[in-house]
Amino acid sequence: MNSLTEGTNVWLPKTCGFIGGGxxxxxxxxxxxxxxxxxxxxxxxxxxxxxxxxxxxxxxxxKVTGDNVGLLDExxxxxxxxxx
Length: 84
Hints:
Blueprint: H1 3-6, E1 16-19, H2 23-34, E2 43-46, H3 50-60, E3 63-65, H4 68-74, E4 77-80
C-alpha cells in the first residue's frame, strides 16, 4: 500500500483550486477529501454556474468563486476540471 491509498497528509497544508465545478470536479474532490489529500478549508472551486457553486459548497463545505483569475493568484495547485 502507498500513502495515498492509506490516506496522506503530504498535501494537507497546500491550497488547491478546481477550475470547473461539474461532474469531473465532483468526483476528483470527493476522492481527494476521502483520502485526506487536502483539507476542505484549503480547497476553492470556480465555475460560471451559480447553481454548481452552491452545490459544491453545500456538498463539500469548500470555498467557491466565479473568478478564475483570482483563483490562480492565490493557490498552489490548480486542477483543470472542464470539458475539452
